[in-house]
Amino acid sequence: MTDPLTPTARTLVEAMSAGFPGPGSPEALRAAARAGVREIPPPREETAHGVRVRLYGPPASAGAPVIVFAHGGGWVLCDLDTHDGLCRELASRTGASVVSVDYRRAPEHRFPAAEDDVYAVVEWAAERYGGPLLVAGDSSGGNLAAGAALRARDAGGPPVAGQLLFYPALDHRLDTPSAEAYAEGFFHTEAHMRWYWEQYVGPDGDPVAASPGLAPDLTALPPALLVLADCDVLRDEGLSYARRLSSAGVEARVHLHTGVFHGFLGARGVLPEAENALAGAAAWVTDVTG
C-alpha cells in the first residue's frame, strides 16, 4: 500500500512518534512537547486582563492588524515557548502584531477556562490595538480561536475581521472517516485526541459546548481560513466546519495540504508544505485586512 505521507514527512513522523509517550500523563506529555524547544530571544510580555501574553511585530501604536494567537497542544501541552517560532513567522510574514496567549491548561483548568482567557485577550487587544483584529490558533488553539469568534458575535464583543484556523479540533465526537483512517501511524493519534478531550471537558463538562464545529448557528461570523493536513485525524471535521460556514453565508476558504500530518507547521524549514501553508496564510491575512 502506498504511504500517503511524503518520504520526508514519514521520516519526521517516525522520529517524533518514537519519543512521544502515549496518553495518560500530562507531565510526561508536557515534557515531550518541550523537548525540542531551543533558546529564544528575549520576549516582550505583558498581562492582558489578567492573562500573560507574548507580543510580536509592530507596537500597538502602528495601527497594523493584530492576531490573537492560541497555541495547540490538546489544551494540556505546549506553551508560549513551544509556539514562539510560529508566532514570529506569522508576525514577520503578515506585518501584523501577534499576541500569543498563555491560557490556563487542562486538566488543572477545564473548559471554559482556556476559552475565557483567549476571549479576555481578544477584548484587551481590541482596546489596545487600532488595526483589524483576527483570531488564530493551531489544533486545540484553533478550537479556542473559533470559540472566541463565536463568543464575540454572541456577546456583542469586539469585531473580528477573520479567523485563521490551523488543523483545528472542532468536534469532540471524532467519528469522521479521517479519524478512522489516520487513527495511528501519523504521529497525532485518535487515542491522544480522545484523551485530550477528556482532560479538557472533564467528567461533568459539556463537550458539545466545547465543540465549535457543533455550534447550531454559524451566521454572521468573520471570514475563515482553515489550513488542513490531509493525513490527520481532524481533517474531516475541519472540512465539515468550512462547509457549514459557507452554508451559513460566511466566507470560508480551505487550504488542504497533501502528504503531511497534524502539526506539520512545526517542520518549517524541512517540509515545503509548511512554507506553502504559511505563505498562503499570510496572503489570506492581507486579503481580509486590506
Topology record:
Layout (H helix, E strand, L loop, with lengths): L6 H12 L7 H8 L10 E5 L2 E6 L9 E5 L13 H11 L2 E5 L11 H16 L4 E6 L1 H15 L7 E5 L10 H5 L8 H12 L22 E8 L3 H13 L4 E10 L10 H18 L1
Parallel strand pairs: 3-4, 3-5, 5-6, 6-7, 7-8
Antiparallel strand pairs: 1-2, 2-4
Helix pairs in contact: 3-9, 4-5
Structural commentary:
The protein is α/β, with parallel strands linked by helices and 290 residues long. 38% of the residues lie in helices and 17% in strands. It contains 9 helices and 8 strands. The chain has helices spanning 7-18, 26-33, 84-94, 113-128, 140-154, 177-181, 190-201, 235-247, 272-289, and strands at 44-48, 51-56, 66-70, 97-101, 133-138, 162-166, 224-231, 252-261. An 8-stranded mixed beta sheet has the order 1-2-4-3-5-6-7-8, sandwiched between helices. Helix 4 packs across helix 5. The termini are far apart. The model has no long low-confidence stretch (mean pLDDT 97).
Helix/strand-derived class? alpha/beta
User: So what's the overall shape?
Assistant: globular
Q: Give the H and E element order.
A: HHEEEHEHEHEHHEHEH
Number of helices: 9
Order of adjacent strands in the largest pleated sheet = 1-2-4-3-5-6-7-8
How many strands? 8
Q: Helix proportion of residues, in percent?
A: 25-40%
Largest sheet: 8 strands, mixed
Q: Which spans have pLDDT < 50 for at least 5 consecutive residues?
A: none
Mean of residue pLDDT values: 97
> In angstroms, what separates the terminal alpha carbons?
46 Å
Query: What is the C-alpha radius of gyration, as a whole number of Å?
Result: 17 Å
How much strand? Answer: 15-25%
